[in-house]
Write a structure and sequence with these properties.
The complex is a heterodimer of chains A (201) and B (483).
Chain A (H helix, E strand, L loop, with lengths): L1 H22 L3 H21 L3 H25 L4 H5 L2 H24 L8 H4 L9 H9 L4 H22 L11 H6 L2 H4 L12
Helix pairs in contact in A: 1-2, 2-3
Chain B lengths: L2 H7 L4 H20 L4 H22 L5 E3 L4 E3 L1 H19 L1 H7 L6 H17 L4 H19 L6 H32 L4 H11 L3 H17 L8 H8 L2 H24 L6 H22 L6 H22 L1 H27 L2 E2 L2 E2 L9 H4 L1 H15 L5 H15 L3 H27 L13 H15 L5 H14 L2
Antiparallel strand pairs in B: 1-2, 3-4
Helix pairs in contact in B: 2-3, 2-6, 3-4, 3-6, 4-6, 4-12, 4-15, 4-21, 6-7, 6-12, 7-8, 7-12, 8-10, 8-11, 10-12, 10-13, 11-12, 11-14, 12-14, 12-15, 13-14, 13-19, 14-15, 14-18, 14-19, 15-17, 15-18, 15-20, 15-21, 17-19, 17-20
Classes of the chains: A mainly alpha (201), B mainly alpha (483).
Amino acid sequence: MLMALAFYLFAAVLTVAAVMVIAARNPVHSVLFLILAFFNAAGLFVLLGAEFLAMTLVIVYVGAVAVLFLFVVMMLDIDFTELREGFLNYAPIGGLIGGVLLIELVLFLGGMMVAPASSAPRASPVREGVSNTQALGEVIYTQYIFVFQAAGMILLIAMIGAIVLTLRERTGVRRQNVAAQVGRTRAQAVENVDIKPGAGI
Amino acid sequence: MTYQTLLGYLPAIMPELVLGGGIMLVLLYGVFRGERSLISTALLTLLVLCVAAYYVVLGASDARVLAFGGSVVIDPFASFLKLLILGASAVAMIMALEFLKHEKLNRFEYPVLIGLSALGMLIMVSANDLMVLYVGLEMQSLALYVLAAFSRDNTRSTEAGLKYFVLGALSSGMLLYGISLIYGMSGTLNFDVLKGVIETQGMSIGLVIGMVFLAAGLAFKISAAPFHMWTPDVYEGAPTPVTAFFAAAPKVAAMGLFLRVLFGPFEAAVAQWQQIIIVLSVASMTLGAFAAIGQSNIKRLMAYSSIGHVGFALLGFVAGGEAGVKGVLIYLAIYVAMTLGAFICILAMRREGRQVEEIADLSGLSTTQPGLALALLVLMFSMIGIPPFAGFWAKFYVFLPVVEQGLYWLAVVGFLASVVSAVYYLKILRVIYFDDPAPRFTEPSYPGNGVLLAMSVLFITFFIFWPAPLLNAAGVAASSLVK
């Protein structure tokens, strides 16, 4: 009973927040609604017993992605109301296409059966007494270690690529010289100056 | 899966381990040495590639070795393609040095990115799992996007990089959509299990759709028409040695992956995919033949030429069986030798400190530089498919199984496309041999490219006398894929 109540609460707030993301006039409000939507989706994940996914959603999407969005929205000087102009003009044709797609999807799904072969992975729940995180760790670092390491190499390539394409040696910029900083002695850095009262340096 | 089992898998993936670890060390060396270390990093990368190739040879056996729960496979087919990929990457890296020096692009990241891209390709041809397939493909593609935009102050190069990135992301999206459908319909990512599922339950509609999306994504990567739109622009805009690399190694890897997917898990669905491949093949051959005729930029012409060659190689897919796969492998090996040779010639087109790319710039080359002109003559004749050059035998071994399968009309289309493509290859030769001489090209300062060009031309010319090693290796590789 309580679970059902929680589900409807999370689901309702999630839907409303998702609608508000695209309906809000102020882009900052949109991002804040997005964060609300993420939190409620995380709540739904918890109800499903996927607590690891829920925490990742909060940490990655709310902690990093949404905050980044917020920065971008605040930094960029874009007139979003201007961008949104003409939205209503296109709404009828957009709605029509969406409606056709919806009908087609319903027809498709109505006539479709779940592939028998796919029932095996769906029906393999997590073992009793093993948390999500442990279950994931057990396969990521054993069965999927090759893919995991390869994904790490992809991130390395992304890093090299970003440096190759954007880093420029700029002139006239003072750069940190660690050796010079460490090699500085007291004599070079500190000087005793005799100042008369009220005269200044 | 215990610690010991995982350690037991390591010998099987030695080439990848050596390449990955070696490239990271080279990267560290490059970062410490700074900007002026292109030559030494290139030589170190060459060493790493050679050691990786040594381990490929060492690990090559007739057995089919599975690692990491069946998600990685090492068989003669993978070993053959890995050697080809490593060789093509090494040549494409060495031939770039002169160009990079002149164009002020001498940065150590170039060899590092080539090496990382080669690592992705090795993973691709060893994939026995849809997830490994995707990860390998993304690894090579990401490095290629960066390489395309490597000349970052050049608008055309950055445009090429951006175009390649956006369209590549689109193709990855299609590929992923296909993979998710296949997973949903079959409940497995592993090729061997998937094959069993298809053999026992047949192809459901969902699986067919998934396979079509997968095929479309892969066709994008091999630039088969009608998924070729990015090729001419990217080939023209990217720095010339990068274009050479694009035309050689990634094509081999993506074709190998395509073969592995179609003749592995989807072997029983040949009726469904054969018609797709026929369309791709015919479209690529005709487009490659006709669209290249009007080109005046030689890099653009090479792009259409490579689309045409992909079409010919796809003929082997259609024929199927051991002979068809063997034909594709032979075609790929000879195509790589021809295309790298042609690009070394294009790299030699340098005048007054500038790289020139128009076909008209080659005018009268036979009087000013007869050696280079002769090399181009051999390469162009080979690309047309005139005997006794290797290009003829490449076409021979893909046409033969097609004819044996009774697909005469397809062979006739291929032959006609080949004749039409002769028009633009001969046009280049006419400019070289019969037009008024233009000023000489600048002499290269490294001897490397000349040696590589000579090797390519000698291989193409004398392949007819010594074809056994390639034919045997391709035969063993093909029989390991098609049982």
